[in-house]
Amino acid sequence: MAKQEDIFKNVVSHAKEYGFIFPSSEVYDGLSAVYDYAQNGVELKKNIREYWWKSMVQMNENIVGLDAAILMHPTTWKASGHVDAFNDPLIDNKDSKKRYRADTLVEDYCKKLEDKAKKEIDKAKARFGDAFNEEEFVTTNARVVEYLGKKKEILSRLAKGMTDDLQDVKALIEELGIADPETGSKNWTDVKQFNLMFGTKLGASAESAMDLYLRPETAQGIFVNFLNVQKSGRMKVPFGIAQTGKAFRNEIVARQFIFRMREFEQMEMQFFVRPGEEMKWYHHWKDTRLKWHLSLGLGKENYRFHDHEKLAHYANAAADIEFNFPFGFKELEGIHSRTDFDLKAHEKYSGRKLQYFDAELNENYVPYVVETSVGLDRMFLAVFATSLQEETLEDGSTRTVLKLPAVLAPTKAAVLPLVKKDGLPEVSRKIIEDLKWDFNVAYDEKDAVGRRYRRQDALGTPFCITVDHQTLEDETVTIRHRDTMKQDRVKITELRGIIENEVSMKNWLMKM
Ligand code: GAP
């Protein structure tokens, strides 16, 4: 079996080779954690965005869309808490000049303690077999008790240091003898808070310019427009506002390809509800969002919930939908019950009322909010990495196939004349002229037809339509299915229906 690391490398190189994702400004050696979506990537990304938009906005009478500007009044970020609290605690190594998240260094140390405990448990399990009582062993074995106890103590000191005094976090790092993972040096600077927002300026002259931020989440554009949308759309609580768009974070540990980027896209929906009803809606959206993911058919086993124990100051419940990426289970989407924190904060900082008059209750209130927030780039990575497969065929040969959900595939069908003569290209072009109004279709006449099939497999195209000499006689073609490689002879007039049946969003979303 291929190693996780190799699978991931393969994903990155396939994305580049087949025109899905390029490193940004590659001619200048790229820009760290910034990527460009290429000719096929942009289509796949657009289709994921549409699949989300259709299920959230078009299918729900009480959810409407919004496209707020990336640049917002700077007080927005004071109110939301991002100016004061959207920080990572950083520490530099004086010798290596490398920068790390101080909390991650301590957490990695604790992970090692946990691994040691697990090793002891596994050893005992193997020794005692069925008679092994893990619960008892964990509380009585001296070494396991020591490892886990130490871990607990360190994490609680870390949490205290993070809120009270970052000097204590540095002292903890020194006391534990934590070294630079790359060089082994223990020569550390103090720990400093580093704000993740990118700053920019508005205005022509240096004196009059106003400091702005590139938004770190799309959600605040929704909050500040809450009353505009509610009034102009005559929306009744409960209702939602959905938005997709770019967000920017100056991530320090930006690794893992498009998983953690500095410029990325979010698909967020804020659902405004009556105070006291937020838990009902929180569970509803947790459930609905998981069903949306499952409708794409990437495998139930690849998803799990992670319910947060430690909640952000504005939340009274939160969970992540985690996905099994090539580097393990990681957050794909967040579902948060954000209480009335954001709207109340904007009321306070703007001096304007952001309240809703509930005619049924005959009262004014600031609604509570349940948020669903999924990263479009992470969705792309989840879909792309899971779909990329190496298959061994019956004759022993192998093929690389990108088994994208057909509804998301960049190109739905490729039309291939068997040979470049005898009028076959002309018939192929006619088929394309007819289908292109409804589907993204491609024409390919280069190389032997078998190689063209393989190329379309690697691009994730669900259908290849081959025009041959029989087509000239009876207006039939062969249609080849990507996943089964099965070929059927069908009438040209049947093509639209066959493709539509496999790629229509309706058929896919009905699986929810
Ligand atoms: N409005 C809530 C919010 O922004 P978040 O958990 O910080 O919550 C939501 O982000 C989602 O955005 C994440 O689940 C992830 O999919 C995506 N995301 C966050 N940071 C990202 C980054 N640096 N690169 C790519 N996607 C990111």
TrEMBL record:
Domain Aminoacyl-transfer RNA synthetases class-II family profile span(s) in chain numbering: 197-417
Gene Ontology annotations of biological process type: diadenosine tetraphosphate biosynthetic process; glycyl-tRNA aminoacylation
Claim: Transferase is one of the keywords in the record: no
Keywords: Aminoacyl-tRNA synthetase, ATP-binding, Cytoplasm, Ligase, Nucleotide-binding, Protein biosynthesis
Record's subcellular location: Cytoplasm
Binding of ATP, residues: 249-251, 259-264, 331-332, 375-378
GO molecular function, one term: glycine-tRNA ligase activity
GO CC annotation terms, alphabetical: cytoplasm; extracellular exosome; microvesicle
Catalytic activity: tRNA(Gly) + glycine + ATP = glycyl-tRNA(Gly) + AMP + diphosphate
EC number: 6.1.1.14
Enzyme class: ligase
Pfam families: HGTP_anticodon, tRNA-synt_2b
Binding site for substrate: 101, 217, 264-268, 371-375
Subunit structure: Homodimer.
Role summary: Catalyzes the attachment of glycine to tRNA(Gly).
Family: Belongs to the class-II aminoacyl-tRNA synthetase family.
Name the UniProt record assigns to this protein: Glycine--tRNA ligase
Native organism: Flavobacterium nitrogenifigens
